[in-house]
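anyone seen this seq b4? input:
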Amino acid sequence: MNTLCKLLVTCWLLVSFLFSGMGIVSGQNEAGKTFEIKSTTTVMKISSNGGRIVSFRCGSIEMLTQSSEHENFGSTFWTAPQSDWGWPPLAILDEKEYKVENLGDLLKMTSKPDPKSGFQIEKTWKLNANQSIQIEYLIRNISGSPKSVGPWEVTRVPCGGFAFYPSGGEGKVPESSLKPDLQTEEINWVSIDKNPIHENLKLYSTAKEGWLAYVFNGFLFVKQFPDTKPENYSPHQGEVEIYADKNKGYVELENQGAYQLLQPGESLLYAENWFLISIPEPIKVKPGNLILSELVRHQLGIRKQSQD
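predicted toks r here
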């Protein structure tokens, strides 16, 4: 077994340990009713306000921006495209109280019907057999007419790390003001330092393989989602988007699914898996290190020739 394979197996064992065991624990704080999906050392906390993920951490290492750091915090879910609703996000779907159902090993939250958009959103969380946390988003058309919509997850993380994902090549996406720092073996790398910039920046990109990763404080946070072809993107959106706040209060890791026409009463489902991987010390934590992308592919079961 070569060095890379040994490292991959080590990471797999570490992840299995981090996510072993699960319980759903309820509580309440300024974010409203909260529910924790707990493993031995990893905790995901979800608020009933907006069905928002407000924490994803291992020990003291927090991967999500907190409400004490910025008004835009945690991980939320929007309907795409943004041109349908502008700004701010639709309150009923983004921040108002969701109905909560604790179904043993499954946590479910449902918004109230939103008459402004004509949609209702359901969210569920559970632990998968492969030890990832599965999140499913359902958008239902509760209006009396056909409506087109796409799923859009927006995850705010602290600055001071770097993101990477597989490039999808050419495709019609909006012009980006935020650019990748480099591309190696078709992997795009985007560094996010903590230095304020003169304006907010946004990256719009095609992608492939269906994943987006962020390295921060020795951990690798991976979001896995269905790969979407460029012809199925929502108008004026990309499959992967990264938004950098000019004050560097946070950065958004965004992924979007296929734009679909829903008849009245119809719904679409968008399923994801979240992983949190402790990076072994022998691995150099820097943009462009392909061992990091191989770690992701190994965890997701994606066959790709390794680069030693």
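The two ends are 13 Å apart (CA to CA). The mean pLDDT is 90. kinda curious what u guys think
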